[in-house]
Design brief:
single chain; alpha+beta; 20 strands; three-stranded antiparallel sheet
Length: 354
């Protein structure tokens, strides 16, 4: 009888202990749940409720583009010489400065090139890609832009008409026999390729918000950008890397809906930039027209003295924005991790060990 009562007493003690442990687990879960709810509320307040919010925007390529007249120029000077060599090309063109005088059977003398200028100009209507970050303060009605970058040739390179003019000292040639009296020549080259046209923000960008309705605003942001361009002249790639900041104003409308936003902008573009690289170009061939109809084939050794780009038109853009989470979201990750870790712990005797 005493043994039976002892066993029964032990069982009751175990049951009471398990019930007490479950109650403690439930209480702790309730506390953790309350903490998590508080952190989630704080994070939500940090990301959404305040007047200041940060957004990352991606320019929609199908809906955005540049419609503009683009003019690229390059100015060079140096020398030209016939492509004759006694061994490799004995029937090639030979050159000699001046219009009169002797011209030996193997003479081939360099001629001064005063200028060889190229102008690539035409209209482009291309798709645009890129992105930027906006910090919006709806209480102060201010807007700040960072990391603006735009590729105006996202849909591919553009082919534009090219005009090439050549001014040299007077000279004459053999094979074919012809004279060049030093009058500037316009060479029929055809077209050239514009392979790069892009801008990147080079300075702070700030502006004003004008509320136009619930969650809708008009804005103007003034900033500086670097313009980069690359094009081809007679087989020579010419680059103008952005090194001189140019003024740029992004003007448009902003619509905020929950955690998403859309910017629609129609921005006039008027960029003009030039540089003086004084860069030696690789030797390249050129066929000069003659009165006989047969071309005079010469080789040019030139130095690029000036390169420029002029863009005038309209930049249309639609950009989709996503809200950047506020600092409070870090607390969500930490508390959620703690709950997951506790739930993975072993259960002993039907009670969660905490």
């Amino acid at each position: 009888m005493h043994a039976w009562l002892g066993t029964r007493g032990v069982r009751q003690m175990r049951m009471r202990a398990e019930q007490g442990g479950a109650a403690r687990v439930g209480a702790k879960k309730g506390v953790l749940g309350a903490v998590l709810a508080g952190v989630l509320l704080a994070a939500g307040t940090s990301a959404h409720a305040g007047p200041v919010s940060v957004w990352d925007f991606a320019i929609s390529q199908p809906a955005s583009g540049l419609n503009a007249t683009v003019t690229n120029t390059a100015t060079t000077s140096g020398t030209l010489i016939g492509n004759y060599t006694a061994d490799a090309n004995p029937t090639g063109t030979r050159t000699k400065p001046g219009l009169f005088g002797s011209f030996g059977d193997t003479e081939n003398v360099a001629v001064t090139v005063n200028t060889l200028g190229a102008s690539i100009s035409g209209n482009v209507n291309t798709r645009t890609s890129g992105g930027y970050r906006l910090t919006i303060d709806t209480s102060a009605n201010t807007i700040v832009m960072e990391n603006f970058a735009s590729n105006f040739l996202a849909s591919g390179s553009a082919s534009l008409p090219i005009s090439v003019s050549l001014s040299t000292a007077s000279f004459r040639t053999r094979a074919p026999s012809s004279i060049f009296p030093g009058v500037p020549l316009t060479l029929p080259i055809g077209s050239a390729t514009l392979s790069e046209l892009s801008v990147a923000q080079a300075g702070p960008g700030a502006g004003t918000l004008t509320p136009t309705g619930p969650g809708t605003f008009d804005f103007t942001i003034a900033t500086l950008v670097n313009l980069s361009a690359s094009f081809d002249v007679l087989g020579n790639p010419i680059s103008l890397p952005g090194q001189l900041p140019l003024p740029f104003a992004l003007t448009g409308s902003l619509v905020i809906t929950g955690d998403s936003a859309v910017v629609t902008a129609l921005t006039p573009i008027d960029f003009e930039q030039s540089q003086q690289p004084n860069q030696a170009l690789p030797q390249f061939p050129l066929a000069l027209p003659t009165l006989t109809g047969d071309p005079a084939n010469v080789l040019l050794d030139l130095t690029l003295s000036n390169v420029g780009v002029d863009v005038a038109g309209t930049f249309t853009s639609v950009a989709n924005g996503t809200l950047v989470p506020g600092p409070g979201m870090l607390g969500v990750i930490g508390v959620s991790g703690c709950l997951a870790l506790r739930r993975r712990r072993a259960v002993r005797g039907g009670a969660l060990v905490v």
